[in-house]
Design goal:
It is a single chain. The protein is an alpha+beta fold. The chain has two domains: 10-79, 434 Repressor (Amino-terminal Domain); 92-195, Jelly Rolls (Sandwich). 27% of the residues lie in helices and 32% in strands. The protein is built from five helices and ten strands, in the order H-H-H-H-H-E-E-E-E-E-E-E-E-E-E. The chain starts with 9 loop residues before the first helix and ends with a strand.
Length: 198
């Protein structure tokens, strides 16, 4: 039996990178931030910012989180899937894949609110042997995770938790953390991230 995996094409990656480049330039201009100032605030090299704005770099989720926090916006704002009340429908082809694992796993940003006090909705799929690691989010960030298939290995600092299909977990994720597929079957989970403005 052949397993179908959702692989991000070069065209998909280029579209996401173009959106990130345009939005990053727009927010920098709107907030009157030089490359040097954004580099200082986000702890990201100026050279990397130049590469991102020129669409020559594929920024990680962790890097997007740092840039968003430094500019007082959400990751959803940067990739242009932020809600615009009262109702903003986002079609499937506008939900960007922002991480892809070596075996075909993906992290797709489904929707998010605008601004620094943000909420994001994600869908993750990891295959056996895949892991995603994060250096941690700003203080008081909370993630709600619900496992729909497989078993999630959630590591926060040095503690490891196993969450089976059908179970949910609430995690404070300002510390370094990771998600991994535990076992021999693919893992799927939805995640809501709430980051307070500081």
């Amino acid at each position: 039996m052949t397993k179908k995996v959702n692989i991000m094409t070069d065209a998909d990656a280029a579209a996401v990178n173009n959106a990130i480049s345009a939005r990053l330039k727009g927010y920098r201009s709107e907030k009157k931030l030089s490359l040097d100032e954004l580099s200082r605030r986000a702890g990201v090299s100026k050279g990397m910012l130049v590469e991102i704005e020129a669409c020559r770099a594929n920024p990680s989720i962790a890097l997007l989180c740092r840039l968003a926090a430094a500019m007082g916006v959400s990751v959803a704002d940067i990739v242009d899937v932020a809600s615009q009340p009262p109702v903003h429908m986002i079609p499937p082809d506008a939900m960007p894949v922002l991480w892809q694992g070596e075996r075909g796993g993906t992290a797709r940003l489904l929707a998010g609110t605008s601004g620094s006090n943000m909420v994001e909705l994600w869908h993750w799929q990891l295959f056996p042997g895949e892991r995603f690691s994060s250096p941690g989010h700003p203080r008081e960030t909370t993630e709600l995770l619900h496992v729909t298939a497989g078993t999630l290995e959630l590591k926060v600092d040095d503690e490891i938790f196993y969450i089976a299909a059908g179970c949910s977990v609430v995690a404070a994720t300002e510390a370094p953390h990771s998600y991994a597929c535990a076992g021999d079957t693919p893992l799927a989970f939805t995640m809501t991230v709430h980051e307070k403005a500081h």
